[in-house]
Amino acid sequence: MQQTRVAQGTPYYLKFVESYPGIADLARADEQEVLKLWQGLGYYSRGRNLLKAARQIVDDHDGVFPSEYHDVIKLKGIGPYTAAAIVSIAFNKPYAVLDGNVYRVLARIFALDLPINAPNARPVFQKQADLLLDKKNPGVFNEAMMELGATVCTPQNPDCKRCPVVPHCKAFSKNLQNILPVKLAARSVKTRYLHYFLIKKSSKILIRKRKAGDIWQGLYELPMMETSGSELLSIYTINDQFDTKTTFLKPINKIVHKLTHQKLEIVFYEADMNPVPAREMVLTDAKGLKQYPLPRPLELFLNDYLCKPDSFS
Asked: 242-266, pLDDT tens digit by residue?
């Protein structure tokens, strides 16, 4: 839910619980199966981490979710915020959470002008959160802090008139509530140009598994070529790049897909290539394609393509 609306995430949660009723069930799952269930949520490393954490719990904690902070934070994919939220809310342990909402509340209460996304911000804000924490009721306190930031101390036009802590808010007393918190400028967005080839072999198409070290690692995609610019590919470019003989190349769709720090300009082509310009290819039909986890833009494209009556003719 950190980067996903509750309404969008809930059906995925229910599918996971139905597929894996317990931690041991998830720990036994195949990564491809888990990524397929995760498909459409993005941030696929979280799906992989979920599986790895389940295996850690089974291997290191006899299948019982740990209750101590130092054990929880060792689980794959769990950082300080998530660990503090889990142990305080589920086990009533005195650890203060620090998420975007809490950063904002703290910046205003204490009139802190240190950018909340600065490299040295976390220990400063964590110290303030720890000082405020109600150690007898840490879970309720943490939820209240997050709720205060989400519903009252909002990013724009905070509702100071109904804020229960406004008498203690230094930002309000100094009329800084619409200036704080301070944030450093966001990272620039990188544009990438991806060209995907729909290569049909009788009643099947070719796909391949993406390797580690880039977006969508471990997911499946069509054969692909990345270029430095937005120009459409020509048969001559492909033949020169892949040492293959392309006899047909037709652009059939173009989309823009935005990630957190990347903008992907994607062109899909129908192509006839021989030999195929990549190794480790999988040949699959429309039915078999359903078992492979796909990046969201490829899933949407192929679903639309497969609806056409002559798609595999």
From this structure: 777 888 899 999 999 999 889 999 9
